[in-house]
Amino acid sequence: MCSRASTIRATRRPCTRPSRPTCWGRCREGDGAVTRVRERDIDLPDGRTLHVYDSGAQKRYPVLWQHGTPNTGNPPEPLMRAAKKLGLRWVSFDRPAYGGSTRHAGRTVGSVAADVAALADALELESFAVMGHSGGGPHGLACAATLTDRVSAVVSVAGLAPFDADGLDWFDGMGPTSTAALRSAQEGADRKRRHEEESADAPIDFTARDWATLAGPWGWLAEVAAAGVAKGLDGMIDDDLAYVTRWGVDLAAITAPVLLLHGSDDRVAPASHSRWLAGALPGCEHWTLPGEAHLSVLAAEEHGAEDALRWLAERTGR
Q1: In angstroms, what is the C-alpha Rg of the chain?
Q2: Which residues pair with 26 in a beta bridge?
Q3: Looking at the predicted structure, is the pLDDT value of residue 210 above 90?
Q4: Number of separate domains in the chain
Q5: CATH number, domain containing residue 95
Q6: What is the extent of the structural domain holding 176?
């Protein structure tokens, strides 16, 4: 949905951490320090495998990271240092067909909540907050709507609204590459796959600020984007198919505090999507950052990803 990984991946060296049942990976922090991240595989009831990441520190409050499309679930390196200062612990996972997780053909945005519940059980998490960027935003909201007794707060950054959102012109403001990718998904998996194979060199709908963001700490996104397609296109295809079908959840069921963060100039997931969500979620907070776009919104000094993480911490009693 959000990016052509073939274009982004040249920005930084791709991440090639191995996928093993239990291993230690590393996440760089902004000051050059390294946080060890434990990786493990969880066996799901239907026979699939879910690859999970955990920054440990059991006394810290867990925040579940929901990754974008196409990415893997590695915890966000640019936010590792901030999370540590706030007493937060990152946990995350590769969505089905990404990284070390088994494919789940026909999955919906809402069905991923069952995988999150299995992750929480395996890590013995009674409650947790959720933060998602881009395609991770819808999945985070779906978790909040489904796991109401476990999700304490949720942040959606540059996320999409439901495809059947009443009164929303879903494609309005979306750039041509993102529009073509998602319209092809409307025509089914085969058409979507052909589209991706035929348009690998299509330009990404990023603004100049987005590209500048990739030159800084958030260039980490280039690594997880490259890793997201290293095994093939199934994860990206299944994500996009899910975005253009019903989520399978009731947003009105969300009881946890919600923050919607969006850049006004986003051409991948237009800011109108968060405006629609704000109307559908009474009591939520909605930050729109003038001039920011799909990636630059993360790096904004005021009301960017670090401030959103601080907002989460405050609502979990940290």
Answers
A1: 17
A2: 36
A3: yes
A4: 1
A5: 3.40.50.1820
A6: 5-315
| Integer angstrom CA distances of residue 38 from 53, 170, 204, 231, 303 | 6, 38, 33, 21, 30
Question: Tell me: the pLDDT tens digits for 145-158?
Answer: 999 999 999 999 99
Residue 301 identity (one-letter amino acid): E
The answer for residues whose C-beta is within 8 angstroms of residue 305's C-beta and 6 or more apart is: 76, 78, 79, 133, 157, 261, 297, 298, 299
CA nearest neighbour of 205 among 68, 7, 70: 7
Q: Which residues contact 220 (CB under 8 A, 6 or more apart)?
A: 12, 28, 76, 77, 78
Fill in the amino acid letter for 166.
Answer: D
Q: Say if CB 76 and CB 65 are below 8 A apart.
A: yes
Count of beta carbons in the 10 Å neighbourhood of residue 140: 29
On whether the CB atoms of residues 65 and 78 are closer than 8 A, the answer is no
**By percentage, how much of the chain surpasses pLDDT 70?**
89
The pairing of beta strand 258-263 with beta strand 285-289: parallel
DSSP class of 9: G
Beta strands in the chain (DSSP E): 22-28, 34-43, 49-54, 61-66, 88-93, 128-133, 151-157, 258-263, 285-289
- Cβ-based neighbours of 262, under 8 Å, separated by 6 or more: 157, 158, 159, 269, 271, 273, 274, 286, 287, 288, 289, 297
- Whether the ω angle into residue 45 lies within 30 degrees of 0, i.e. cis, is no
User: C-alpha dihedral over 252, 254, 259, 263, to 10 degrees?
Assistant: -50
Arithmetic mean of pLDDT over the chain: 92
Query: How far apart are alpha carbons 10 and 77 in whole angstroms?
Result: 18
Global confidence as pTM: 0.91
